[in-house]
Design goal:
Layout lengths: L1 E6 L6 E6 L2 E7 L1 H4 L9 H11 L8 E4 L3 H15 L4 H15 L2 H9 L4 E4 L2 H10 L6 E7 L6 E9 L2 E9 L4 H11 L8 H8 L10 H6 L3 E3 L5 E3 L15 H7 L12 H29 L3 E5 L6 H4 L2 H4 L4 E4 L8 H13 L19 H10 L5 E2 L3 H13 L4 E4 L13 E6 L5 H9 L9 E5 L3 H4 L17 E2 L17 E2 L2 E3 L5 H14 L3 E6 L11 H9 L5 E4 L2 E4 L17
Parallel strand pairs: 1-4, 4-5, 6-11, 11-12, 14-21, 16-19
Antiparallel strand pairs: 1-2, 2-3, 6-7, 7-8, 9-10, 13-22, 14-15, 15-20, 16-20, 17-18, 21-22
Helix pairs in contact: 3-4, 6-14, 7-11, 8-11, 16-19
């Protein structure tokens, strides 16, 4: 049985396909369209999945869609009618897309894909729950899903065992911690549904003391938090339920000034506001998790939804709650709901026994040596080819040790925003200047942004104060942990201002080539840790094809590019056609 999963029309459209419960392929539409967080119908993603499965669309037995469009439209109508006439212009602008596309999914799918089979619609938060439980390593677990909003639900929690998931507590729109975080993201001059992680990184520069951060106490005026983690927002401070923007004048007045203009300099006040929203989020999550443990008495917890990408809090889950084990799916936001919808349909609706545990995020396109060589030769790109893997690894490790920045491209592309190791930019974590170099010359982004360390599983506890055993979510760069103080000056390029690092932990059986490179660098430097950041620049999705990787190198300060066992040196190839500024638009 083949089942295709699809999510689209909000943000991070994606598609995936399984056969008899085993995943074949999963990919976000943005990787093909090159439009970051692309929300359009994922046609190219679907075609890739079909190609990887070796079938045509009408050999798919069922398509699972990640939400119930009519239920969502009911909520949209309600929120606008309740706020009328203030919501009039926003409603008029939104209505055509609902009439033409969002409420006509069956017709749209059949038209775009020429599909004749059945389509199942899975509630949004149940798709999130399926994505984090049904493919987890646990037979039973407490379940938390938390994001901006699905149809009506913004937060749900419950219990799952075997094939069954019960979400017995719900918080509904407009009360949403995800939308609160997005409102502050907009207030600080960043883009919503794109830059919340920037606020999370900025929070470390602010005052994280609940007693003395005045903005924390001001934000608490906007939201009432109960002992069980449920919360109710004072909607007089917000306008997202009826306008196409987020911060209200009342909220701006509360925070002491207007919305920050894009790319403006961050003052201490703004850093403290970022810290405040992070603290409020952590308060709510801690109360929810403690209540959830009390209700379920289960030592396992699984989490999904956009808020599950808050890696700063994820590293505190086991310290702040009685849970012993946590599992977070690498594509925890809406991109991962296509996968959750598929498995909910296969395991829960069709009652097939669970026979798959998610253990690798490498589910996207890959390219053979023949395909890469043809591209290089056709473009007249100069390169070196090293056939033997050991010699290749030693060569690249030495380049990084000599402070070169390397674009790393090998194997199948990753599923999720931070499950790196196949499309990564790698450099020397021991070089104090490397963070500034990468932000300025490679990523073209804000100077405060930190970079992540990648470390092998047998070295992680030496350098980081991480949970034991180390959660699987660290493979997908979803956990921030303190770096042991004696190593702050040893790996300054990956030590954030608060002494933390968002580490990626690699097991050799999952990615032997990547693991061996880190170990070889360690033999040279005595520190088996690399800087690892996604292979893209600000405003662009992670590269998918070899040519996109080459283009990214030539438009930035990346020194070398590896494509499988091919090595391309930037300085060996003409650069006059590459304008780095044109590639840096956000």
């Amino acid at each position: 049985m083949y089942i295709m999963g699809i999510s689209c029309f909000y943000h991070d459209s994606s598609a995936c396909i399984i056969k008899d419960g085993q995943i074949i392929a999963a990919v976000e539409q943005e990787r093909f369209s090159r439009k970051k967080h692309d929300n359009t119908f994922p046609y190219e993603a679907v075609q890739y999945c079909l190609k990887e499965a070796g079938i045509t669309i009408n050999e798919v037995d069922q398509i699972a869609f990640y939400e119930k469009p009519l239920l969502k439209f009911e909520r949209v109508l309600f929120q606008h009618f309740e706020s009328f006439p203030k919501s009039y212009f926003t409603f008029i602008q939104a209505l055509p897309s609902w009439i033409n596309e969002k409420t006509r999914i069956p017709r749209l799918v059949r038209k775009k894909l020429k599909y004749k089979g059945d389509i199942a619609f899975i509630q949004h938060h149940m798709a999130h729950a399926g994505s984090c439980f049904l493919i987890s390593p646990y037979d039973k677990a407490a379940v938390l899903t938390i994001d901006g909003v699905g149809e009506w639900t913004t937060t749900s929690y419950g219990y799952a065992e075997g094939n069954e998931i019960t979400l017995y507590k719900h918080i509904e729109f407009p009360h949403s911690i995800g939308l609160l975080y997005s409102t502050i993201t907009a207030y600080l001059g960043f883009s919503v549904n794109n830059s919340e992680y920037k606020v999370m990184g900025l929070s470390a520069f602010g005052n994280m003391d609940r007693k003395t951060n005045q903005y924390y106490h001001k934000l608490l005026k906007t939201i009432e938090i109960k002992d069980d983690g449920s919360f109710f927002m004072d909607m007089s401070y917000f306008v997202y339920h009826y306008k196409g923007r987020m911060p209200s004048k009342k909220l701006c007045d509360l925070l002491g000034g207007p919305v920050l203009k894009r790319n403006s300099e961050m003052k201490e006040r703004h850093k403290d506001i970022a810290a405040a929203v992070q603290l409020v989020t952590e308060d709510i999550l801690t109360k929810i998790l403690n209540f959830l443990y009390k209700e379920t008495k289960c030592e396992n917890v699984v989490i999904a939804g956009g808020v599950a990408l808050n890696s700063v809090y994820n590293g505190k889950i086991l310290r702040n709650s009685p849970f012993k084990r946590v599992w977070i799916q690498p594509n925890a936001s809406d991109g991962g709901t296509s996968l959750g919808a598929v498995y909910y349909l296969y395991n829960t609706v069709f009652k097939n026994k669970r026979n798959f545990v998610f253990d690798s995020a490498y589910l996207g396109p890959q390219y053979s040596d023949e395909e890469i060589k043809k591209m290089l030769d056709d473009k007249k790109i100069k390169y070196t080819y090293i056939k033997e893997d050991k010699e290749f690894i030693k060569t690249i490790a030495k380049l990084i040790y000599d402070n070169n920045i390397v674009g790393w491209f090998y194997g199948r592309m990753e599923w999720g925003p931070r499950a790196l190791g196949a499309r990564s930019i790698l450099s020397n974590a021991c070089n104090r200047d490397m963070q500034a170099i990468l932000n300025l010359k490679v990523k073209h982004r804000e100077k405060f942004r930190p970079f992540a360390p990648v470390v092998c599983d047998d070295d992680a506890s030496t350098y980081f104060e991480c949970d034991e055993p180390i959660p699987e979510a660290t493979e997908y760069m979803l956990m921030v942990y303190p770096i042991r103080k004696k190593y702050h000056e040893v790996i300054p390029a990956v030590t954030h201002v608060d002494g933390s690092g968002r580490l990626q932990v690699i097991k050799r059986e999952k990615n032997p080539r990547y693991y061996d490179l880190i170990k070889e660098f360690g033999r040279l430097s005595k520190v088996p840790i690399l800087i690892n950041t996604s292979f893209n620049i600000r405003g662009e999705p992670i590269v998918c094809t070899p040519y996109e990787a080459y283009r990214c190198m030539m438009g930035t300060g990346i020194d070398y590019l590896t494509l499988n066992n091919f090595i391309i040196k930037r300085d060996d190839n003409p650069q006059d056609m590459w304008d780095s500024e044109s590639l840096a638009d956000d």
